[in-house]
């Protein structure tokens, strides 16, 4: 299962694990989460809106407080929640308050 945790007070989101929906290369849940997180990470990196750390099965995004990064992270949250609704056994999205 992919576990995503948003901490809006600290401006951190962590994504870890594997969806295990299907075999490698055919896992649509993994693919969807990967595309979304890579898209947001690249914009944050290219626009100097924060940084991120990656390793196999793990991504941590630390974003700066500004309008664009806040919108990107909200988009990421909403999109991942939508996927979670369809695949609750493969993706869990949490918000630390």
Summarize the model shown.
Pfam families: Peptidase_Prp. This protein is an alpha+beta fold and 97 residues long.
Describe this structure in words.
Helices cover 40% and strands 30% of the residues. It has 97 residues and is of the alpha+beta class. It has one domain (2-96): 2-Layer Sandwich (Alpha-Beta Plaits). A five-stranded mixed β-sheet has the order 3-4-2-1-5, with helices on one face. The protein is globular, with a radius of gyration of 13 Å. It starts with a strand and ends with a strand. Keywords: Hydrolase, Protease, Ribosome biogenesis, Thiol protease. This is Ribosomal processing cysteine protease Prp. One of its GO terms (biological process) is proteolysis. InterPro entries: Peptidase_Prp, Peptidase_Prp_sf.
Topology, please?
Layout: E1 2-7, E2 12-16, H1 28-46, E3 50-55, E4 58-63, H2 67-86, E5 91-96
Parallel strand pairs: 1-5
Antiparallel strand pairs: 1-2, 2-4, 3-4
Helix pairs in contact: 1-2
CATH class, named Alpha Beta
Name the CATH architecture: 2-Layer Sandwich
CATH superfamily: Cysteine protease Prp
**C-alpha Rg, in Å?**
13 Å
**Main sheet specs:** 5 strands, mixed
How many individual β-strands?
5
Question: What oligomerization state is this entry in?
Answer: single chain
Query: What is the helix fraction of residues, given as a range?
Result: 40-55%
Distance between the termini: 22 Å
Strand residues, percent: 25-35%
Q: What is the arithmetic mean of pLDDT? A: 94
* Physical arrangement of strands within the biggest beta sheet: 3-4-2-1-5
Number of helices: 2
Q: Structurally, how many domains make up the residues? A: 1
User: Tell me, what's the shape?
Assistant: globular
Q: Return the string of H and E elements.
A: EEHEEHE
User: What is the CATH third-level topology name?
Assistant: Alpha-Beta Plaits
Classify the secondary structure makeup into a structural class.
alpha+beta
Low-confidence stretches: none
């Amino acid at each position: 299962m992919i576990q995503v945790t948003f901490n809006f007070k600290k401006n951190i989101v962590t994504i870890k694990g594997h969806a295990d929906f299907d075999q490698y290369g055919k896992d649509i849940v993994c693919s969807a989460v990967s595309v979304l997180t890579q898209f947001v990470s690249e914009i944050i990196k290219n626009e100097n809106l924060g940084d991120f750390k990656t390793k196999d099965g793990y991504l941590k995004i630390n974003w700066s407080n500004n309008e664009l990064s806040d919108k990107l992270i909200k988009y990421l949250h909403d999109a991942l929640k939508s996927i979670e609704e369809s695949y609750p056994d493969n993706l869990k999205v949490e918000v630390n308050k």
